[in-house]
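Handout, section B. The chain below has 391 residues.
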Amino acid sequence: MSVKNIVILGGGFGGLRTALTLERAIGKDPSYKIILIDQNTFQLYTASLYEVAVGELTHRGILLPFNQLLKGKKVEFINSRVTGIDPKKKVVRTIAGDKIPYEKVVFALGSDTEDFGIPGVAEHTIGLKSVTDAEKIRDKINRCSVLKKEPIRMVVGGGGFAGVELAGELAGYSFCPLDITIVEGTPRLLSGLPEKISSAVAKRLNFLGVKVQTSSFIAKVEPKEVILKSGRKLPFDVAIWTSGVRGSRFVDPQLFPLDKKKALVVDGYLRVKGYEDIFAIGDLAGTGVPWTAVKAEADGKLVAKNILAQLKDKPMQKREAFGIPFIVPVGKKWAVAKIGPFVFWGLLAAVLKNLVLLYYLAQIVDPLTAIKIWWKGESELLGRTHETKHL
């Protein structure tokens, strides 16, 4: 009996959720094999990257090793980088030259930074997409705090979720004074959210001493200056780019249809347009919904159900439009949250934000371990070994 591979490319929030949901349903069925491929040996809890950037957390608090997350699960984890996919031969290729046949494949590779071709962004700013980025920000602030006597000038390009969260956390930095400016091209912060939320966040940032430049587009970035299209120059010691994201550059636009944000065009079942056996989730699924961890997990659950439906020749389930819940922390002990129809901000939302990681961990590891990791802030409690299968 030939084994049919269900291959998931990427182990982020959506990819891991897809793998675990499938494993519960068909993990014991010898006719199927669930394969999760990721170039890292860990899942990055991206929601807390901004805390690493300011030294509130170490990387140990947000790196969750796959070999422990999948311990005892009928999921084969392959630590490798995917270099291509052949939809005609139904094969996934890795950097080592291996070819993995698939029955179904799921794109869960997330997003990449987009600089929109603005000169100097890549050379003179730091992103916030990885632990390396976060540690670069922290180290540069620390270095400036030693070398400079006056406040460190920081420019954050982008007033979306990441920019607002980072600026709010930076405002509470206690080791040295910071002069923080957010530059946002649209007329208000968090432009995709209701205006009352944008207004509340703007007031909070103003209270924290963060300057906000809306309706301001960046023309170019020099080694020590951000130059706006208006001609205004913003000198900086540290410049951080959170403004642009696009679908993963891994996807070949010659093979797969992309939307304007370079995400894959999908149908209501999250199948990539033109393909019956290829699905996309999270940031790579162009559904018009803001790219958040909650969206990725919801997509992952739905795709797992639809793959199971296909395997059993049953009707698939369409994606339903729903308001994605979110919590945006803006400094210590303050956040804004939207849960269903309810919007609230202040200390209660901040407390809720602190429980989100616990809730997430409780879904992927046993409850006692989840509480220990959450309480101590160190994912290394999952295990000290990181042995994985390499291709």
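Note. The CA atoms of residues 84 and 252 lie 8 Å apart. Compare this with the example in section A.
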